[in-house]
Design a protein that fits this description.
about 85% helix, 3 helices, about 0% strand, membrane, about 80 residues, mainly alpha, single chain
C-alpha cells in the first residue's frame, strides 16, 4: 500500500512541477484563448448564416421547383 501512496505522491509532485513552469502556463492560457475565440467565431458565423439563409427560403424553393418542372417538360426522359 505504501508503494501506491509513494507513486501517487510522485505523480502529484511531477504534475505540480509541470504546471509551475512558465512555458506550460503560457501554453494553457493560449489554449484557453483559442478555444474561447473559436467558440465565439462559430457562434457569430452560425447566427449570420441562419439569418441570411432563412430570409427568402420560400421564394427560393418555389423558384427551384418551377425550374425543375420546366426541366421535366423540356426533357421528359429525365422523369422517373
Amino acid at each position: 500500500m505504501s508503494n501506491l501512496y509513494n507513486f501517487i505522491n510522485l505523480v502529484r509532485n511531477e504534475n505540480m512541477k509541470l504546471y509551475l513552469q512558465r512555458s506550460n502556463q503560457v501554453m494553457m492560457v493560449l489554449l484557453i484563448i483559442f478555444v474561447i475565440a473559436g467558440a465565439i467565431i462559430v457562434t457569430i458565423g452560425s447566427k449570420q448564416h441562419d439569418e441570411s439563409e432563412n430570409l427568402h427560403w420560400k421564394t427560393d424553393l418555389k423558384e427551384y421547383n418551377e425550374h425543375l418542372e420546366k426541366l421535366a417538360v423540356e426533357h421528359p426522359e429525365l422523369k422517373r
